[in-house]
Amino acid sequence: MTHPSERLASVDPIWSAMRQEAFQAAAEEPAMAAMIHRAVLAHDRLDAALAARLADKLASGDLPALQLHPLFDEAFAADAGIAASLRADLAAVRDRDPASRSLLKPLLFLKGFQALVTHRIAHWLWLRARHTLALHLQSRSAEVFGVDIHPAARFGRGVFIDHATGVVVGETAVVEDEVSMLQGVTLGGTGKETGDRHPKIRRGVLISAGAKVLGNIEVGAYAKIGAGSVVLHDVPAGCTVAGVPAKLVGKCGSDHPAREMDHSLQAAAPGA
Fold first, then answer.
1. Which residues of the chain have pLDDT under 50?
2. How far apart (Å, rounded) are the C-alpha atoms in residues 227 and 213?
């Protein structure tokens, strides 16, 4: 007879595939079996597993896991958009990270994914004027994952933050669907200005390691930013910029740079 949790898993292909990976991983590495069971197999839904995993990761003397866990459950239950987003984020990691063709690994180990889900919960709190608690999650995420995203920043679905260490995203930044960024990326301001002061990253953009995008500027859809660049002006859609300060290099040479994760710079002229 099929266990009730297995029937629930069957209607959610992402969760079902993750559970299969978990069974296999536990069998292959008995030393990790208890942790994998606690993190995944003891739960009947993906959001329940994530709530438990993040509560364990983010627990502190200020807020223990026993207080964080029901808070995360509350956010997932109240906003179906979080659940849909995190599934798209999981698929993005599996599809774009050559070192992780897996759904299980992000939940267990990858801090970019874990930090992004934490931000989604913090953003949910921020929109409900629970600012102190949202800022606590931002602070803990920075301490635990090395990723500092202001709770007011807006993220679309299918976002991939690879390696993640040192990523900083400011209060009025917008990151649309299917964006990929690597470690050391900053989406920041240019000084002490107030109001709408952070970048708007449109759909499908690839931001390479160490790039700094500063000010209330727009990076157009399916553009590419070279590693280590400092971007101070708008970037046209479908184009590549690189350098300090960043200058137009040419067309991306790809219809979807964020999916292909090709960080090479094209030599073609902008009009080519």
1. 1-9, 268-272
2. 11
